[in-house]
Write a structure and sequence with these properties.
The chain has 2 domains: 198 residues, Vaccinia Virus protein VP39 (Rossmann fold); 106 residues, DNA polymerase, domain 1 (Orthogonal Bundle), CATH 1.10.150. Helices cover 40% and strands 13% of the residues. It is built from 13 helices and 7 strands. The chain has a 7-stranded mixed beta sheet, with helices on both faces.
Length: 309
């Protein structure tokens, strides 16, 4: 099922840096997906080890693992602290998050994530809740859409793109990915059409799923959920995510404002384990092209503010 659903990215590096040790304690996979990372984690846990995984996509349930040490929570990882607290888990020894869209979501036309296939303009990670991208485009003002395109897609001339989309919907609703691409094709720069379309799709997907807010909440919760020495391993796929992760791991805040004591020691809840982000090898990218944009960062929980958590 995993091979068909999703090929896990940077699998060996992420498991290695999670530092599973003797396999005891409680661990967390924030993005279960096809279960590739979770299965390898379980293989390295002892009989007393526990793994709690989260995924908001109802389709991910099909990949659940039959193991008494494993629990799959059908919810967004932004609710991790709430769930773990309700179930008596105060601390974890490691948290892994592989962000972004799964192969299954990209390859299923009905999900509306892909440029390659025409399908309903949905884009919801959980297609059973919230509003679709089609609904959003039917309701938003051009000013709201412009901000989304600029902030989340880093689109050049977002005002022009937003006005074109809003103008097109006056003639007929935009309900499929193909219809949206057709509207955008009139503005796409020659030779860079797919990159242009991808920026628009990314911006809409982030807005529809509130992705960056959820990531901020996960990172902040990791401060409370990880025991001293515990590892936070995050794989991101675009600069907006990677910037948040890098800043938080380095300074403990999203503005990257580093605080130091009188001896020059950084006062932050995390210490980066690797100086630069780890990228996929050429061999992995050849086997799995979606690994091309992946960036893996690792940090370790310090003793800063640990007593107050």
């Amino acid at each position: 099922m995993e091979q068909a659903y999703h090929v896990p990215v940077l699998l060996d590096s992420s498991i290695e840096h999670l530092n599973l040790g003797d396999g005891s304690g409680t661990w967390m996979d924030a993005t279960f997906g096809g279960g590739g990372h979770s299965r390898i984690i379980l293989q390295n846990l002892n009989s007393e080890g526990i793994l709690v995984s989260f995924d908001q996509d109802p389709d991910a349930v099909k990949n659940t693992i039959n193991d008494d040490r494993f629990t799959l929570v059908e919810a967004n990882f932004r609710y991790a602290k709430q769930f773990l607290s309700l179930n008596g888990v105060k601390k974890t020894k490691g948290i892994l998050a592989d962000l972004g869209v799964s192969s299954h979501q990209f390859d299923t036309a009905d999900r509306g994530f892909s440029l390659r296939m025409d399908g309903p303009l949905d884009m919801r990670m959980n297609h059973e809740s919230g509003i679709s991208a089609a609904d959003y485009l039917s309701e938003c003002t051009w000013e709201e859409l412009m901000v989304v395109l600029r902030m989340y897609g880093e689109v050049k001339r977002p005002d022009r793109v937003a006005r074109a989309i809003v103008s097109a919907r006056e003639n007929r609703p935009i309900t499929t990915t193909g219809e949206l691409v057709n509207i955008l094709s009139k503005m796409a720069p020659g030779g860079r059409e797919n990159k242009f379309y991808a920026q628009i799709f990314q911006a809409l997907r982030i807005e529809i799923n509130d992705e960056l807010s959820a990531l901020r909440e996960l990172l902040e919760q990791a401060t409370d959920l990880l025991e001293q020495g515990g590892r936070l391993v995050v794989i991101s796929y675009h600069s907006l995510e990677d910037r948040l992760v890098k800043h938080f791991m380095r300074s403990g805040n999203f503005e990257d404002e580093i605080e130091q004591d009188i001896k020059g020691r950084v006062l932050a809840p995390f210490k980066p384990v690797v100086r630069k982000a780890i990228c996929a090898s050429a061999e992995e990218v050849l086997l799995n092209p979606r690994a091309r944009s992946a960036r893996l960062r690792v940090a370790e929980r310090t003793d800063f503010l640990l007593k107050s958590c």
